């Protein structure tokens, strides 16, 4: 007995294929969405790790620099200069006169009183000449009068400066003062000011203050060195969202592009673990979407006004480009399969619909059956 393939209804099959294609596409989109979410979470953790490493480097640099400055304050020449100056009674009128002359002619006034020729000044000048990070170093006595300097500064009396008051404290136990990144008029550069107390041996009596103006570029190069992608970069930012530094330069009062969302996320962590890390998505002013990872430095624990954080960004279109490329390839494969199956179905339908006539085919004619009429 001959067996024939079942007849394929091309219309029904076509409808089923056309209905299934959107389902395939929807399934692909669901898989893509799930994959993107998982990739976003995983890469968000990687970005926060990068931010935490950069933050740790910032901490290490700053604390090491503070230690270096504290060591300078304990050099015998520096201690001797501060102690000698503190033993001279304060003559307010003379100090103001010197300050007035100094402000108008700093180099000439410094030379006239011989301040730049003392051993401590020569030592500080050698430090500045051999380490370009140090732009200026000065030493004052207990009254805030200059007793040594690497070069002529913008003014003579320092006791009215905020950094001096903070470092001198109550005059019995000094504190370390570290400034934010600022523009230093004396050195014409963005700098960080570090001031430490100078004590006299024996007894460690507070006799003055030493201040270093350190070039900020070496510190900020830490952020500049973090590069996630072609369009990603790292930012050193404050808690209010203002930029301390980015790869475009010193931020000034510029705001981080995700400042609003960043501040909103910060609210839930403000009183929490200082080791927190956050990741979120945000769009810049041009509408480009970025994945952002943020981690805090530990400077704020010692210097509350330096609650800096490191934010590392990664363009999402770069991140998801391989996944989206695979989705389009998958949809293209689905389309090709559908076209191929439709072609096969049509071929089979045409074959089955054709009459089966051949040389071995016998057609048997049946005689007509006579019609029997019944009598009424």
Topology diagram in text:
Blueprint: H1 10-72, H2 76-86, H3 92-104, H4 106-112, H5 119-130, E1 134-140, E2 146-149, H6 162-168, E3 177-178, E4 182-184, E5 189-200, E6 205-215, H7 217-224, E7 234-237, E8 243-246, E9 249-250, H8 259-266, E10 278-283, E11 289-296, H9 299-302, E12 309-315, H10 316-353
Antiparallel strand pairs: 1-2, 1-6, 3-5, 4-5, 5-6, 7-8, 7-12, 8-9, 10-11, 11-12
Helix pairs in contact: 1-7, 1-10, 2-5, 3-4
Q: Helices and strands, in N-to-C order?
A: HHHHHEEHEEEEHEEEHEEHEH
**Judging by the overall fold, what is the CATH architecture of the domain at 63-215?**
2-Layer Sandwich
How many beta-strand elements?
A: 12
- Termini separation comes to 47 Å
Please state the average pLDDT score.
Answer: 80
| Proportion of beta-strand residues | 15-25%
**Largest sheet at a glance?**
6 strands, antiparallel
Uncertain residue ranges? none
Q: Categorize the overall geometry.
A: rod-shaped
Radius of gyration: 40 Å
Portion of residues within helices:
40-55%
Based on secondary structure, the structural category is alpha+beta
């Amino acid at each position: 007995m001959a067996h024939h393939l079942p007849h394929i209804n091309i219309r029904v099959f076509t409808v089923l294929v056309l209905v299934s294609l959107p389902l395939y596409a929807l399934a692909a989109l669901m898989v893509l969405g799930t994959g993107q979410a998982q990739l976003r979470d995983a890469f968000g953790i990687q970005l926060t790790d990068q931010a935490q490493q950069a933050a740790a480097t910032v901490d290490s640099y700053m604390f090491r620099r503070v230690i270096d400055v504290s060591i300078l304050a304990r050099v015998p020449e520096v201690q001797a200069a501060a102690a000698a100056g503190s033993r001279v009674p304060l003559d307010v009128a003379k100090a103001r006169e010197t300050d007035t002359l100094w402000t108008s002619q700093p180099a000439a006034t410094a030379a006239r009183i011989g301040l730049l020729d003392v051993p401590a000044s020569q030592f500080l000048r050698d430090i500045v000449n051999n380490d370009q990070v140090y732009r200026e170093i000065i030493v004052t006595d207990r009254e805030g009068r200059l007793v040594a300097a690497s070069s002529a500064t913008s003014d003579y009396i320092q006791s009215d400066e905020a950094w001096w008051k903070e470092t001198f404290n109550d005059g019995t136990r000094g504190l370390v003062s570290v400034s934010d990144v600022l523009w230093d008029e004396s050195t014409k550069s963005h700098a960080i000011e570090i001031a430490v107390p100078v004590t006299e041996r024996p007894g460690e009596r507070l006799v003055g203050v030493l201040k270093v103006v350190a070039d900020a570029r070496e510190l900020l190069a830490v952020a500049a060195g973090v590069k996630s992608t072609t369009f990603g970069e790292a930012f050193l930012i404050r808690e209010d969202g203002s930029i301390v530094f980015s790869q475009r330069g010193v931020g000034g009062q510029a705001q981080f592009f995700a400042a609003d969302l960043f501040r909103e996320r910060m609210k839930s962590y403000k009183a929490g673990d200082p080791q927190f890390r956050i990741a979120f998505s945000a769009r810049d002013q041009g509408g480009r979407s970025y994945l952002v990872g943020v981690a805090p430095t530990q400077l704020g624990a010692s210097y509350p006004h330096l609650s800096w954080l490191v934010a590392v960004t990664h363009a999402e279109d770069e991140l998801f480009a391989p996944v989206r490329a695979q989705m389009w390839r998958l949809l293209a494969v689905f389309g090709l399969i559908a076209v191929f199956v439709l072609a096969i179905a049509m071929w089979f339908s045409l074959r089955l619909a054709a009459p089966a006539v051949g040389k071995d085919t016998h057609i048997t004619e049946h005689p007509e059956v006579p019609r029997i009429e019944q009598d009424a």
